[in-house]
Automatic annotation (TrEMBL):
It comes from Pterulicium gracile. PROSITE patterns: MR_MLE_2. One of its GO terms (biological process) is carbohydrate catabolic process. This is Enolase C-terminal domain-like protein. GO terms for molecular function: hydro-lyase activity; magnesium ion binding. InterPro entries: Enolase-like_C_sf, Enolase-like_N, Enolase_C-like, Mandel_Rmase/mucon_lact_enz_CS, Mandelate_racemase_C, Mandelate_racemase_N_dom, RHMD-like. Transmembrane segments: none annotated. Residues 243-262 are annotated as: Disordered. The keyword Coiled coil does not apply. Keywords: Magnesium, Metal-binding.
Length: 465
């Protein structure tokens, strides 16, 4: 019997505010940070997890992580693994901790870090990457692993089971296919608000060269400037001269980009406002961006405003612009209502804003039932490492499709992870295949030693300057 005997937390912060990486209309000064947890056992087995923050407050999250992880001490790992849904229920069920949520804010993202660490440990114990562990489950095991409280008015376990059984037969083929071609990705790195026009143009040309066909830029600080930057990006992604030879045959009629306002080379532009507007203001502002032909506006308003998103979606429909959200949707009930209210065209789960893999599975199942594609949020630090696993689970075992999905990719900070994600030369994520990488989130000790706040070598040096 293997028991959980302890845990360690690390407050790891990267000084990204110095370069303008990650800047958008709401978040102007980000130090991408990881509230990192290691679960320890009385064997060699470890479980690594984290949640993402953008700087100050990372320590507050870690205080909550310690509270949640403490609930696992002394637990038999096989018992936890045998019913991951029950394990998730147990993690959120502490009455005193529940009071400071429930299921939202600091305590919830801390639960995400811990639940992800348990899943990582489970995958490592079976010598499979996380996605493979889950797609090899029976439909019954997948259903048992999800978080079910409060969502039966949108999906029942029986419905989920029937959906999963229907997808059983094609799993093997989809797995082989995605290993070959990779999972479709889009790139955000070119479009941060803090970058100069020259830098935006250069990064966009590089992204086209790398094989990407979907691009996202940040908007919302200044409409004239947004149009100018949008035109710079469009002038590059729509111009066949920049297309690499291997992509010369791309077209706006391709199934993967149809209905996405693709330009003549089959390139798609998305825009992201990071919650800056009121509802009517969002509609008016985004209408004004019609000429740069976005596929969708992401996070136009407050993340909790379900009916507001529905109103924006209705208001923008005549302009052919969709609505996406989810990176700040704090639990499955918010996603349930976004789906029920027909408020979104694209569902953007976050791997550690939701309280871990178990809650993500619930949202994947609901989205599949409602027919809304899941295009997870990534970037930050560690999020790309995480989300490729979730999209693979969605494609292989749940929705059965990736044709129109795109998974966010931001080329920052991957070097700190032992098994970093990677992109092939068609702008698609490679499938993680290392049997010992679990959920791919283990960081190098030396990265932690350098960037741990405030006593890591980088921060000690910065304090002296
Ligand atoms: Mg966003």
């Amino acid at each position: 019997m293997v028991k959980i005997t302890g845990f360690k937390t690390n407050d790891v912060r990267f000084p990204t505010s110095l370069t303008g990486d990650g800047t958008d209309a709401m978040n102007t000064d980000c130090d991408y940070s990881s509230a990192y947890v290691t679960l320890e056992t009385d064997s060699e087995l470890r479980g690594y997890g984290m949640t993402f923050t953008i700087g100050r407050g990372n320590d507050i999250v870690l205080a909550a992580v310690a509270e949640v992880a403490g609930r696992l001490l002394g637990k038999d790992t096989e018992e936890l693994f045998s019913d991951m849904g029950a394990t998730w229920d147990y993690l959120v069920a502490d009455p005193q901790l529940r009071w400071i949520g429930p299921e939202k804010g600091v305590i919830s993202i801390a639960t995400g870090a811990v639940n992800n660490a348990v899943w990582d440990m489970y995958a490592r114990s079976r010598k499979k990457p996380l996605w493979k562990l889950v797609v090899d489950f029976t439909p019954e095991e997948i259903v048992r692993s999800a978080a079910w409280r409060y969502i039966s008015d949108a999906i029942t376990k029986e419905e989920a089971l029937a959906m999963l059984k229907e997808k059983e037969a094609g799993k093997k083929e989809r797995e082989e296919n995605v290993k070959k071609v990779g999972y479709p990705a889009y790139v955000t790195s070119a479009g941060w608000l803090g970058y100069s026009d020259e830098k935006v143009a250069r990064l966009t040309r590089e992204a086209v060269e790398q094989g990407f066909s979907h691009f996202k830029m940040k908007v919302g600080a200044n409409q004239a400037n947004d149009i100018k930057r949008g035109k710079i990006i469009r002038s590059i992604i729509d111009d066949p001269q920049y297309l690499p030879e291997r992509h010369k045959n791309r077209s706006p009629n391709d199934e993967s980009v149809r209905g996405k306002n693709a330009g003549p080379t089959g390139a798609v532009l998305m825009i992201d406002a990071n919650q800056v507007w009121d509802v009517q203001q969002a509609i008016d502002y985004v209408k004004g961006l019609e000429e740069i032909k976005p596929w969708f506006i992401e996070e136009p308003t407050a993340p909790d405003d379900i009916l507001g998103h529905a109103a924006i979606r209705r208001g923008l429909k005549p302009y052919g612009i969709g609505v996406a959200t989810g990176e700040h949707a704090h639990n499955r009930m918010v996603f349930k209502q976004l789906l029920q209210a027909e408020a979104i065209d694209v569902c953007q789960i976050d791997s550690c804003r939701l309280a871990g893999v178990s809650e993500v599975l619930s949202v994947l199942l609901m989205s599949a039932k409602f027919g809304i594609p899941v295009c997870p949020h990534a970037g930050g630090v560690g999020l790309c490492e995480y989300v490729i696993h979730l999209s693979l689970i969605d494609y292989i075992a749940i929705s059965g499709t990736m044709e129109r999905n795109v998974l966010e990719f931001v080329d920052h900070l991957h070097e700190h992870f032992k098994t970093p994600c990677s992109i092939n030369d068609n702008g698609r994520y490679n499938v993680p295949l290392d049997p010992l990488e679990g959920y791919s989130i283990e960081m190098y000790e030396k990265s932690i030693a350098e960037f741990e706040f405030p006593h890591g070598s980088y921060w000690v040096g910065a304090a002296k300057k």
